[in-house]
Amino acid sequence: MERKSDISGFHELSPKRRLELVKAFAGLTSEEAKALEKTGALDGKTADMMIENVIGTTELPLGIATNFLINGKDYLIPMVIEEPSVVAAASYAAKLARASGGFTASSTDPVMIGQIQLVNVKGPEKAARDILAKKQDIITYANTVDPCVLVKFGGGLKDIEVRVLATPAGRMVIVHLLVDCRDAMGANAVNTLAETLAPMFEDISGGKARLRIISNLADRRIARAKTVWKKDVLEQASKGQFNGEDIVNGIIEAWAFAFSDPYRAATHNKGVMNGVDAVVMATGNDWRAVEAGAHAYASMRGRYTTLTKYSKDKDGNLIGEIEIPTAIGLVGGVTRTHPVAKVAVKILGVKSANELGEVMASVGLAQNFAALRALATEGIQKGHMRLHARNIAVMAGATGKDIDTVAAKMVEEKKIRVDRAKEILEKLK
Ligand code: NAD
After folding, report:
1. pLDDT tens, 70-118?
2. Cβ proximity of 295 and 324 under 8 Å
3. How far is CA 289 from the centre of its chain?
4. 150 Cβ inside 6 Å of ligand 1
5. How far is residue 72 from each of residues 68, 327, 344, 361, 400, measured CA to CA in Å?
6. Would you tell me the crossing angle of helices 339-348 and 30-37 to the nearest 10 degrees?
7. Does the C-beta of 406 come closer than 6 Å to ligand 1?
């Protein structure tokens, strides 16, 4: 099967048929496909090795976002999320972006920061200068010993920075190890390196090393994505309900509001993270690490603001851009032990952590655009309510075709409640 992600009518197919198409797209084996289909794919034994005091497992839906074209390559995007509308919205935004060639994405080297906190340093400025003077020797030593085995994969310690920090507990010297983690998220690797090198910094500074730990503000490991949503395409997609120029202006104004107001920016970025987290979860990555990094990065200008940016090109089309830290990996953590995460990575077809970060950024941008488009036009509830109504219909006991019939009636009446769903269901019977 051709690797095309714009599969028309994908959402109308049965889960079984969808899985068949994904299997063909990604070249999954029958066993891999079964791992996705069967409930309880994470067996008790594997789960018991992941965390402590295991008593069971829990599950969330795994959906596939279609239509993604990133750097000229088609992707089907596995997304793990409990919230309705997210997968549909991402697919829709990606579809509208195809008209201009999809997303262009890039990333920096996968550099994470390890922090070593030195306290009780007499003369912190001199200590900082002394550490920097020995920087090259320390880097050479670290990459020769290579305690976390990163050099072999093309990574390792790349640079050292030193800051003198005034704190409520006095002045401290903070050493930053800039570690290229290649395809690892790097927390274990960086922590190991920080612990290995800490005694050297104690010797040079005469201080005491306390914390030796990775920073989740991964501002040296950034993915960027960009696309253009054409105003004519936006108008057509609204079936003539809204004027293209108006949609573009509405989205830019919505972004400008969030850019200038932390109350709105938090919700704006939550929309970005709907997409980002869903990919991070599907691939078995550490979503707390990515969340912490994203929000800290959004505050880097001294005030919490947006991770995305919108503007107009000379023809009045909408340009969307995102910049986001990407502390994610393809090795380590549970990315290679969780049976579903492994298959999700295969479906994505990503070959490096950087490529995964670029996909993640593109999905975050798509998700954010979809929310802003809805907010700036018909409002967010219309689409949301349709899916919410289906959930309510199921809660009321509807099955099969009745689910859509009951949901449609509730949406039409604008009464999305279990009691009303039960009444409609009763009448159908
Ligand atoms: P890890 O130590 O399990 O795996 C990384 C190792 O994989 C590397 O050290 C390297 O030896 C090896 N490797 C094999 N192929 C590689 C390649 N192509 N590129 C790079 N390395 C390769 O995992 P990790 O990525 O160091 O740590 C991730 C885990 O740490 C996550 O589970 C995360 O939840 C956890 N963690 C996070 C934090 C935090 O975010 N603050 C703190 C502690 C632990």
Report:
1. 999 999 999 999 998 999 999 999 999 999 999 999 999 999 999 999 9
2. no
3. 10
4. yes
5. 9, 24, 20, 15, 39
6. 120
7. no
Give the type of residue at 370: A
Residue type, 317: N
Question: How many angstroms separate the Cα of 260 from the Cα of each of 238, 264, 303, 331, 393?
Answer: 28, 8, 9, 38, 40
Measured in angstroms, how far is the CA atom of residue 185 from the centroid of ligand 1?
Answer: 5
Ramachandran assignment for 2, one of left (phi > 0), alpha (psi -120 to 50 degrees), beta (any other): beta
Helix (H, G, I), strand (E, B) or coil at 424: helix
Q: Which of 109, 157, 185, 355 for a ligand 1 pocket mutation test, highest count of atoms within 8 Å of Cβ?
A: 185
From the list 134, 192, 199, 191, the residue with the least C-alpha distance to 162 is: 134
Active-site residues, by number, are 83, 270, 286, 384
The partner residues of 115 in beta bridges, in order of sequence, read 176, 213
pLDDT tens digits along 52-68? 888 878 889 999 999 99
Residue type present at position 323: E
Give me the residue label for tokens 């099969």: 400
Q: Rounded CA gap, 161 and 172, in Å?
A: 14
**Residues in a beta bridge with 214:** 114
Say what percent of the chain tops pLDDT 70.
99
CA angle 88, 92, 96 (to 5 degrees): 175
180 lines ligand 1 (CB under 6 A): no
Q: Is 335 in the pocket of ligand 1 (CB under 6 A)?
A: no
One-letter amino acid at 76 equals L
What is the length of the chain? 429
Closest by Cα among 350, 342, 392 to 42 = 342
Strands 156-167, 111-119: parallel, antiparallel or unpaired by DSSP? unpaired
Question: pLDDT by residue (tens digit) across 170-211?
Answer: 999 999 999 999 999 999 999 999 999 999 999 999 999 999
